[in-house]
What we know:
Layout: E1 2-11, E2 16-18, H1 19-22, H2 30-37, E3 41-43, H3 50-65, E4 74-78, H4 89-97, E5 103-107, H5 113-126, E6 132-140, H6 150-153, E7 158-168, E8 172-179, E9 187-189, E10 208-210, H7 212-233, E11 241-246, H8 251-261, H9 272-275, H10 282-292, E12 301-308, E13 312-319
Parallel strand pairs: 4-5, 4-6, 11-12
Antiparallel strand pairs: 1-7, 2-3, 6-7, 8-13, 9-10, 12-13
Helix pairs in contact: 3-4, 7-8
Amino acid sequence: MTGRIIGTGSYVPERIVTNEDLAKLVETSDEWIVTRTGIHERRIAVEEGTSAMASRAAERALENAGIKAEELDIILMATSSPDHCFPNGACEVQAAIGAVNAVAYDISAACSGFEFALSTVQAFIRAGIYKTALIIGADCLSKLTDWSDRGTCVLFGDGAGAAVIRAEKTGVIHSVMGSDGVKGPVLSCVARSEGNFLNERKPELGYIYMDGQEVFKFAVKKVPECIRQVLEESKTDIEEVKYFVLHQANYRICEAVAKRLKQPLDKVPMNIGSYGNTSGATVPILLDELNRQGRLQRGDKLVLAGFGGGLTWGAALVEW
């Protein structure tokens, strides 16, 4: 058996923050942001936290799948911005949706988190341990963003996406994951400083740091590589793929990946212009949009691919 996506859901906050709004905070402009990133606006949470957004996306995914929360065996939530150190966000979602029979825990792989969660659930299903799973990518990066740093504050938004996975004969065909901890410092966020009563330093939360040029070079090289790897190892011709559902970090990165794969840009759907980079939520939000727009048909082959802090990367070839 393999894991098949049988339902999707997503949620973004109501509050829209435009590029013009950010121009009031930092020295920037709509033209500057759009030219470099493709982003026009993003959604920012005012009252909601990561788990609240994740719960709403989860409820929509369950409804789309036509199953009850009690049927879930496992919930994996990929996030870099949980509301608490503990309890974990997946447990908070479990409580909110009433998934009383599920084990629940978080995965931390930054923007690759949803792909890592999918690969993990796939392993459980293939091993016969679980049959029905909920995977969520959710982040509230506005909590971690330095809103006085124009190099990062223009990039990020908040949101959550979810998918219900069930053991069936077709679904996930193959997946790959990778990490390079040596290069981790080029994209990082300090959770807490090493402070306690002995060294008399107060623990403090940090902000997102990114070396944009290094991340760009990493992404445009590694994403095509892992996509080719997942296709080669599954003996799948690239022309069989209907869509490449990529992490929405930057329009120029998606464009460069399509060019390196020698694929038309219309096979690389994008929504970054409306939401910005929502980290682990970008792929499931985009997947949910494609699903609800009726652009996915049974038997379509998709490649889901993400990259992010760690550094991490992952790709999965799935049959819809």
